[in-house]
Write a structure and sequence with these properties.
The complex is a heterodimer. Helices cover 33% and strands 20% of the residues of chain A. Chain A is an alpha+beta fold. Chain B folds into 2 domains: 97 residues, Elongation Factor Tu (Ef-tu), domain 3; 130 residues, Nucleotide-binding domain of ferredoxin-NADP reductase (FNR) module (Rossmann fold). Classes of the chains: A alpha+beta, B alpha/beta. Chains A and B meet through strand 4, helix 3, strand 11, strand 12 and helix 10 of A and strand 4 and strand 13 of B.
């Protein structure tokens, strides 16, 4: 759609204006790291962040969310609870924008899920182009997620004193026009943007020794590879990789009753296929009892199963799982070793 | 696939328990009625999510056949965990939350005109009973009906009166066995595969439907393969923890399959190369 220019000095006003009508979230400093959080003062917004501990997924599928409230006694029906508020998310990196496509499919296909979709429909995504690699763990260039041409409402690129703002939707354009004094880009702005975009590519290394399009085929040949046993010897099966992954969406459901034992709520919480109870059934049978089987399942899902089901890879190369893995397991090494 | 309004996806309806019958020490049969005269509209082999609020929700296969619904349906429930133990305390008149039916059931159309071989182990009879009674209610549309049923001990045998009816019918070949007999047991003793020597099959015209514990599938499949029944004519109903029932929560994944969406009834040819299936 159209390309606009907003002065960096005008960003604070833009954010403040949006805050008047929306919950605004974005990357904020959290100790030496960054986390997506609600912005209470535009100065907190750190669009220059490298990466966030958790992806912005938590605003669509929260760590814990109520599905319904109920009464324990009597025959009254439970009441659905859908908690959503109009939200603008600033500063979503392109890897995380790619990840949203997997989540959108997962929560739309077959049985649409109002808990996710209501929040999704009430949210606007403002992406930001990465011009420098975040650290050694990411491999977005290899995964084809270093840039994106859709899936956002607005998308920013840092051009020094100004941001170029690419409009991705009508809602994005309305937001920009209503709350900012952005101006349409000129030809020289576009040339400046092109220079910035072409200059960024050499800064990012290719980390995989294979083309991303070959990954599903590679995974389909790797089911019986001994690597799963080898990795399982050091994997702690702690589930951290699931928790920080922008495309993991599995959950478990819990009932909780208040102290008077009358009222309660049913909620869902993030779950992890790396935990040993994940595939266990009531009779005690566990269909992925071996750690190696769980590890393999996770990688198969990212590189093959999700592509088959949702047409998008389940790995976007964000590097979060590798960054936090206590056993130093990185998908870069796993995919490359499988490719050897 | 049943359409569900997205905001009602996880919301059970309050159904009424009409009757409770004790089948064994561990299993009870519940007759359940949906509110407002709604019928469940299930296919044999489908499951529902059963809720007790404050305790939880679990997938349970429907045990009654759609042909005998009369506006209510039956669930045969073994008490094995918190939810099922609590369900066992329910009395007629109590309410229970129900979602569903979910999943792919048995394809009755593909079975018509064929000989049908049922092989059920233990609680595996519960989902198969739905199909068996449907087939018996349309008896003229099928060839031979052969039912093999095995349990560990005589005291674990489910639906005893109904089994007797099947055994008494001239148009049903019914064989029962127990792994270990007791002092009163006069019938077959041995695992379910020992029954296969008692039957001769026209293999190309036979469709098999099997349900039981994981260990049973391996041996029954070997028998069926040995008799030359095509892999595309063998249906299995698999057990997994289908927490949400609608392909979201992930607990029932079998490699790339979701048991709740793609199953719980699978064709053997569909899951033969799927390592996690059995």
């Amino acid at each position: 759609m159209s390309l606009w220019i907003i002065d960096k000095s005008a960003m604070a006003t833009f954010v403040a204006n949006v805050m008047g009508d929306y919950r605004v979230v974005g990357p904020k400093a959290k100790g030496p790291q960054f986390a997506f959080d609600e912005i209470e003062d535009p100065a907190e917004l750190r669009l220059d962040y490298n990466t966030s501990i958790l992806p912005p997924k938590k605003y669509f599928q929260p760590q814990e969310e109520r599905l319904m409230t109920f009464k324990r006694n009597g025959d009254s029906a439970p009441e659905a609870v859908i908690e959503a508020e109009a939200t603008v998310i600033f500063g979503v990196h392109t890897c995380d924008l790619h990840a949203m496509r997997v989540l959108d499919q997962a929560f739309t296909q077959n049985f649409p899920d109002a808990h996710y979709l209501t929040r999704r429909r009430q949210a606007l995504l403002i992406g930001i182009e990465c011009l420098e690699p975040c650290d050694e763990h990411s491999f977005c260039k290899s995964m084809g997620t270093l840039t994106i041409s859709e899936g956002y409402d607005l998308h920013l690129t840092d051009l020094g004193d100004v941001y170029a703002v690419d409009v991705g939707s009508e809602e994005g354009l309305t937001l920009l026009k209503t709350y900012s004094d952005a101006r349409l880009a000129t030809e020289s702005d576009m040339q400046q943007l092109n220079r910035a975009l072409s200059a960024k590519w050499p800064r990012f290394p290719y980390k995989l020794e294979l083309d991303v399009d070959e990954l599903p085929a590679l995974m389909s040949q790797s089911y019986n590879n001994p690597i799963w046993e080898t990795l399982a010897e050091k994997c702690l099966a702690c589930g951290t990789c699931n928790i920080v992954c922008p495309t993991c969406f599995c959950f478990n459901v819990y009932d909780e009753v208040d102290l008077n034992l009358e009222n309660g709520e049913r909620s869902r919480r993030w779950d992890s296929c790396m935990l040993d109870v994940f595939a266990r059934v009531a009779g005690g049978e566990n269909f992925r009892e071996q750690r190696s089987a769980r590890l393999r399942h996770r990688f198969m899902r990212k590189g093959l199963y999700l592509v088959e089901r949702y047409k998008h890879l389940g790995c976007v190369g964000c590097g979060r799982c590798a960054r936090l893995c206590l056993a130093d397991i990185s998908p870069i090494n796993v995919f490359n070793e499988l490719h050897e | 696939m049943t359409q569900i309004a997205e905001e009602l996806l996880y919301l059970p309806v309050m159904a009424k328990v009409l009757e409770v019958e004790s089948l064994t020490e561990l299993e009870k049969l519940f007759l359940i009625q949906l509110p407002d005269g709604h019928s469940l509209g299930n296919a044999p082999g489908q499951f529902v999510e059963v809720s007790l609020f404050g305790i939880g929700e679990a997938p349970i296969s429907v045990s009654s056949s759609p042909s005998r619904s009369n506006g209510a349906f039956e669930l045969c429930i073994r008490r094995v965990g918190d939810l099922t133990n609590a369900l066992h305390t329910l009395q007629p008149g109590d309410t229970v939350g129900i979602r569903g039916p979910f999943g792919h059931g048995f394809s009755l159309e593909k079975m018509k005109g064929k000989d049908i071989l049922f092989a059920a182990g233990g609680l595996g009879l519960a989902p198969l009973r739905s199909l068996i009674n449907q087939v018996l209610d349309e008896r003229g549309s099928f060839g031979r009906v052969i039912i093999l049923y095995g349990t560990k001990q005589p005291k674990e045998i489910l639906f005893k009166e109904e089994l007797q009816e099947w055994a008494d019918r001239k148009d049903v070949e019914f064989h029962l066995t127990v792994d270990r007999g007791d002092e009163t047991w006069r019938g077959n003793v041995g695992v379910i595969t020992t029954l296969f020597s008692k039957i001769a099959l026209n293999s190309r015209n036979t469709v098999a439907a099997i349900c039981g514990p994981p260990i049973m599938y391996r041996f029954v499949l070997m028998e069926l393969m040995g008799k030359g029944i095509p892999e595309t004519q063998i249906y299995l109903s698999l057990e997994r923890r289908m927490k949400c029932g609608v392909g979201k929560c992930g607990h029932c994944q079998i490699n790339n399959l979701y048991c709740c969406l793609d199953g719980p009834v699978f064709k053997y040819s569909q899951i033969k190369g799927v390592e996690e299936a059995l």
